[in-house]
Design brief:
By secondary structure, this protein is of the alpha+beta class. Helix content is 61%, strand content 11%. The longest helix has 26 residues, at 54-79.
Length: 490
């Protein structure tokens, strides 16, 4: 008999399976209704004759709920979108409803149309033509176009997950007012930008950009060459905000609250509020929201004295997010990577910990770091192969040298940034401590990223290698769990 944690697990998996299938093909509502009636009949029969089968009826309903969730969301998004304007030249006002995204040669503005039009639109404009901020009201004159897919990337679906079905390339723009949709976002974005500004004044580039990436997940200010080396060295995950990053930041926040004399109970609720604010401040991307939900659940479990199930916390966070926006399951690569890496840590770490004897002390704590790296990298390997078409080689070795330095770097960097608001002169003096660590980390990244054999390009066979990786990953999962033949019910 399935226990409660696994009933929840399979319910979420069933829901996710429904969402995933519906993302590939539209299921006619007649068939959804037909199978719903069948499931209802099966439930009634199970209740009368075989109550132990009721749980399987619940899984069927969760599967159908996933299909309905995706299709209803997709219908509403398209109905309220600007797709009906594609091919038209418009002159209208709009509100910038997210922070501008700075690219190498352009600025991307996500805007909500006003006036006689409706829908979210991606506006691409010249770099430094104007200084745009969240909440700016702008006048747009330009032609709306339907997004075009790249050769190996479904760009239309990527934008559709954000409710964007139209692009305006380099239109005539004019800032005419300031009407932010959320005062809370305005405040949080100002805090974030001020924090980043303090870091930039205290620590030079490229170290300051790297620190902003570690703490805020901010990649726009990072040096392009450094980002390329991080990708080749397998260290890009360092600037993808995860539960690991958020845990370190929350630890620093808790220490600061206690330092300023707050009682532990009060400090706990302040940290919860801090996590929520931090998620919003960094843009509330799917991977950050997932990490934030898991962080809050962990803190709450400690507060109320309940057992924390990382696996179920992960699936609960994923289910909540997919229910809010079903398209992230298939079309948000950051969410997929974050979810898969965390799942790898949950299921594979104990195996590598045992093999590498990670519980024993070692130089730079390399045993534990290698176990962590292998667990996460193995889980995300099929995704990396399919998306980027390469096989990372040096990732385990680069992470051994760098991961032991990251917690203290983030703690010092966060503390220096906060100190910059209070005593800027002192922050400048103490800033050399995180600077030395950041300098060392960038040297490590550069060394491994410059190696010619850092990655193996797979070219046209990447899809074949992807499926082989999926089969091997599943086989490995079954192998490490085979000692418990009832691992699904554990």
């Amino acid at each position: 008999m399935l226990n409660r944690p696994n009933i929840f697990l399979f319910s979420v998996i069933s829901f996710g399976a429904g969402v995933f299938i519906a993302s590939f093909l539209f299921i006619d509502w007649i068939w959804v209704l037909f199978f719903g009636i069948l499931a209802l009949s099966f439930s009634f029969w199970s209740f009368l004759c075989r109550k132990n089968l009721l749980i399987f009826a619940a899984f069927i309903f969760c599967f159908l709920l996933g299909i309905v969730s995706f299709q209803v969301s997709d219908y509403l998004n398209q109905k309220n979108s600007s797709a009906y304007l594609n091919g038209s030249f418009i002159k209208t006002t709009a509100i910038i409803d997210e922070e501008p995204e700075y690219k190498e040669f352009s600025v991307w503005l996500r805007v909500e149309l006003n006036g006689d039009y409706h829908g979210r639109v991606l506006v691409k404009t010249k770099l430094y033509a104007n200084q745009y901020v969240y909440g700016d009201e702008i006048l747009i004159e330009g032609e709306l176009e339907e997004p075009e897919n790249f050769s190996d990337f479904d760009y239309k679906a990527y934008l559709a997950k954000e409710g964007i079905y139209s692009i305006v390339n380099y239109p005539k723009l004019e800032i005419i007012g300031y009407k932010p949709n959320s005062l809370i976002k305005v405040i949080l974005f100002k805090i974030k930008n001020s924090f980043e500004e303090k870091i930039n004044k205290i620590i030079p580039e490229p170290e300051s950009g790297f620190l902003s990436g570690l703490i805020l997940g901010e990649r726009q200010s990072m040096d392009k060459e450094l980002k390329d080396k991080m990708q080749k060295s397998g260290t890009s995950h360092l600037v993808a905000l995860s539960g690991y990053n958020i845990t370190i930041i929350c630890s620093a926040a808790l220490s600061l609250f206690l330092f300023f004399g707050f009682k532990r109970g009060t400090a706990f609720w302040l940290v919860i509020l801090f996590v929520i604010s931090f998620v919003l401040m960094t843009g509330a991307s799917a991977s950050v929201v997932r990490a934030g939900i898991m962080g809050v659940l962990f803190l709450l479990s400690q507060k109320i004295g309940r057992l924390y199930y990382p696996r179920n916390a992960l699936f609960l966070a994923g289910a909540v997010m997919v229910l809010i926006n079903p398209k992230i399951l298939r079309f948000d690569f950051a969410f997929q990577l974050s979810f898969a890496a965390t799942l790898g840590l949950i299921y594979f770490y104990s195996f590598f910990e045992r093999i590498l004897k990670a519980d024993k002390s070692s130089f730079l704590n390399w045993r534990s770091i290698l176990a962590t790296t292998l667990s996460a990298q193995l889980a995300v390997l099929p995704l990396i192969i399919l998306r980027f078409g390469y096989f990372p080689i040096v990732s385990p070795f680069s992470n051994i040298f760098i991961l032991s330095l990251i917690p203290i770097t983030m703690l010092l960097g966060f503390s220096i940034g906060v100190l910059g608001f209070l005593f800027f002169g002192l922050a400048e003096i103490l800033g050399f401590l995180p600077y030395l660590l950041l300098k060392t980390e960038i040297l490590i990244i550069s060394f491994f990223g410059n190696l010619k054999f850092a990655i193996i390009s797979l070219g046209e066979v990447k899809e074949l290698i992807f499926w082989l990786a999926v089969i091997l990953l599943f086989s490995f999962f079954v192998y490490i769990r085979k000692k418990d033949l009832k691992f699904l019910f554990k």
